[in-house]
Amino acid sequence: MRFVTQGLEMMSEGYSKWKDSMFKITTHDADWLVVSKRYLADLQSLPAERL
Questions:
Q1: Which among 12, 19, 30, 43 would be 20 to 30 A from 37, CA to CA?
Q2: Into how many domains does the chain fold?
Q3: What EC identifiers does the entry list (predicted)?
């Protein structure tokens, strides 16, 4: 439930610590993987089955 009230703070904290990498935020119904822009080209080139 922390994400509901502090989601922006959690995203900002994760970005400041791991902005050139990736980090995971766990909510009550999902896990969110936040990925740096540096990996976007690699991810876009993968087939959907690999993601």
A1: 30
A2: 1
A3: 1.14.-.-
**14 is in which domain, residue-wise?**
2-50
Under DSSP, the state recorded for 20 is: T
Residue among 39, 42, 46 nearest 20 (CA): 39
Kindly report the number of other CB atoms within 10 A of residue 50's CB atom.
7
Confidence (pTM): 0.67
Give residue 12's Cα distance to chain centre.
11
> Residue 34: which residues within 8 A CB-CB, separation 6 or more?
11, 14, 15, 22, 23, 24, 25
